[in-house]
Amino acid sequence: KKEAEKFHINGLNENTVVFVNGIYSEKLSAIKKQATGIVIDSLNAFLKNNPELIMEHIGKYALIDNGFTALNTAFAKEGTVIIVPDNTEVKGHIHIINITGEQGKHILTQPRNLIITGKNSKVNIIESYHSTNSSENLVNAVTEAVVGENSTVEIYRLQQENESSYHINRTQAVQARNSVFTHYSVTLGGGIVRNDTNVLLNDENCTGNLYGLYLTEGKQHVDNHTLIDHAKPHCQSNEMYKGVLNGSSRGVFNGKVFVREDAQKTNAYQSNKAILLTSTATIDTKPQLEIYADDVKCSHGAAIGQLDDEAVFYLRSRGISAEMAKTVLIRAFANDIFETIENETFHDHLNNLVFEKLG
Length: 359
Hints:
Radius of gyration: 20 Å
Structural class: alpha/beta
Number of strands: 20
Helix content: 10-25%
Strand content: over 45%
Largest sheet: 10 strands, mixed
Number of helices: 7
Strand order of the largest sheet: 2-1-5-8-10-12-14-16-18-20
């Protein structure tokens, strides 16, 4: 229990759903009383009572286009089911805590999360992934989100596993008219990590936001692959990913914005920027636009560089140490991601994690 409590976010109004080595722990979880019709439950428990609803949705959105998604679809036994009916809002954040690790064993977990919202609803979700020791483990997670008409769904994915772990994660969101979907991917741990985040703007006046931050060191390898699919007109998307790479680590960003023929009046913005702190760190970046409509505003860009020597010198001339000067500049670099987070407690939590990661 003490091990699980250290992964809670102090001061945040949380509903906690805890999984230990892929198994739901009712003892460690705590869900506040919610409005009638709101469901926050484990997949296994909900499947026993409502198999028809699960079968109606699960596996209908995340395409099986690679072996890992296929593996999860075939063998996933646990995860979180969140259902928010029309005209309701979940009280507090839903924090899904995934803890992996057992001494002397290699653990495979395959969480499967399903999020369904009705009309005019709102929910904020945090997925966090943690290790209890230094053992090699594999997490292969899939999250499917159905964002209802005029609804708002925010998902924050926080990955802090050990440097020996392997982590594969896919999120697929499908948006209805006038909805807003916002996804944050913060990668601070793991040996080999792949984050796939896909959004389908499937009706008019949708807004899709994808933000990502990855800090790597040692021999870490982090892939971020995104797809924003503008299927209908009058929609907008904002995408911003930033990376800070140290040691001999490697990052990959492959972001694609797809604008279909009928998706006129689309506004799409995409940016990927990275800072290399050493000569041995590498980044491969490939921002893409594929546009079949003619009345659109779309832009994309990538920038790779190092810390500004003049800025470091300026801070050092004010009595700040070299390491702290680097930390301050990196934090300023990441600020574009964090300043979009409205919840002050969670904003400060991520801020502290970045400072800890930077030493």
